[in-house]
Amino acid sequence: MSRLLRSFHSLADIADRMVEITVILFIALTLTYLVVRLTDFAFRRLSRAADALRPERAAQRAKTLAAISRSTIKTLLISLSCLITLGKVGIDLTPILASAGILGIAIGFGAQNLIKDLLSGFFIVLEDQYGVGDMIVINDKSGIVEAMNLRITRLRNLDGDLITIPNGTIGAVANQSKGWSRAVVDVGVSLQENVDRALFVLSEEAKLLYAEWPEKILEEPIILGVNEFQANRISIRLMAKTLPMEQWNVGREIRRRIKNAFDREGIEIPGMAIVSPQLKN
Questions:
Q1: In 10 A of CB 95, how many CB atoms?
Q2: What is the model's pLDDT at position 43?
Q3: Where exactly does CATH 3.30.70.100 map onto the chain?
Q4: d(CA 232, CA 230)
């Protein structure tokens, strides 16, 4: 009879533990599902609010951040539920936690650069420092971002070279295509020319270009005036605020129009002196 009672209590105890384990797993799975859904929704809303002008960029950023958050949350919650389950079964967790700590330290020492790359990549995406299609300068390397992930950034430069940069080595980043850009043009005028007349011609050409290119130029170009004196010329600086990635097109068009306008008005643009090589006996 005593054996039967002990068996009954053992079965009841096992049944209670099975129920507790089932409840723990159910709560863990439900919590994981809800947190993942809320994370996806939050990142989509935040990315759209931060970059409403470029919805495709916002969607890409939200997808990347949501994927990282999903995997991290799933790993943490599943690991925690497994540890709680093992504890309910009666397994001593101290050796497991100690082994996991030692393994984590070993991995941390052996993969420092990889971890640094991944963390840097995460914050690059989180802070939206740059994205695919942006023109950037990193560590004296410039180009258009062709691909990026948490570990590396790939740039395609003007010569067509594909440059791969580990995210952990990135220091300062110059993004030349975010928000707005600026075309800066320095115009050389002969010292013998009337400066006020040259400034007037530049101003008229700038107003005309702004009227004809409103889709590329955000504000009327500014004539800063005489920027510096050189041996045979004065330099006049002009600036135009443009859409991202349009500063080079606008700068080329400004130079073309200024050359044509100066030719019409007879204003001299000093040429570079050509030095002929001397033959030696």
A1: 9
A2: 67
A3: 181-265
A4: 6
How high is the pLDDT of residue 36?
74
Q: Which residues pair with 222 in a beta bridge?
A: 239
59 vs 46, 48, 186, CA distance in Å?
10, 8, 39
* R_g of the chain, CA atoms, integer Å: 33
Model confidence at 274: pLDDT above 70: no
Dump pLDDT digits (tens) for 179-213.
889 999 999 999 888 999 999 999 999 999 999 99
101 or 131, which is more confident: 131
Q: Does the pLDDT of residue 9 top 60, yes or no?
A: no
User: What is the reported pTM?
Assistant: 0.61
CATH number of the structural domain 2-110: 1.10.287
DSSP string of 41-105, one letter each residue? HHHHHHHHHH-TT-HHHHHHHHHHHHHHHHHHHHHHHHHHHHHHHHHHHT---HHHHHHHHHHHH
Output phi, psi for 137, to 5 deg.
-125, 120
Q: Is the dihedral of CA 138, 141, 147, 152 positive or negative?
A: negative
Give the Cα separation of 163 and 229 in Å (integer). Answer: 39
**173: pLDDT strictly greater than 70:** yes
Reported CATH class of domain 130-175: mainly beta
